[in-house]
Amino acid sequence: MSNTFLETIKSRRSIYALDKNVSLSQDEIEEIIKEAVKHSPSSFNSQTSRAVILFGENHDKLWNIVEDTLRKIVPAENFASTEGKIASFRAGYGTVLFFEDTDVIKGYQKDFALYAENFPIWSEQATGIAQHSVWVALAEAGIGASLQHYNPLIDDAVKAEWNLPESWNLRAQMPFGNIAAEPGEKEFMADEDRFRIFK
User: Which CATH class is domain 27-180?
Assistant: First the structure.
């Protein structure tokens, strides 16, 4: 059985060896990311997800912020590996920053008080779906990516640098670029440990 959608999902991997030699234009990449986020589902169609797409100097600036932030808290004798990891992200072509708009979430909590405690949970699900949608869409276009979480350490600096709304809550960072080296074989747990099927 051949299923193009499932094959595309399988092609999504965490790619850490990135470079800037992508074949698509910035406009084409931007359109892929925008469409993937726009068509990702959210509870009550609340559309809480926000994305900031960084190219060029702005992409580099993000990873400089991460490096400067971590340099203050990671012991100097342990910083070489951290510095190398950040350099691998900076070597990519761009980064997507994923946010959730807390003002929208609060509005739905007020309007639908019966479900108030669920909206933050549903927001986390929405951002996860949006992140996966972008990741798979980039993979389908031959662009590698990984998902990073340097929030909340960098939140204030990121908002200040790009003048972002206070209500935008940073959830993840996705560096992307040309795949400079293929990832290793992926291992999976046994199906019988993961699934229960009743017919």
Answer: alpha beta
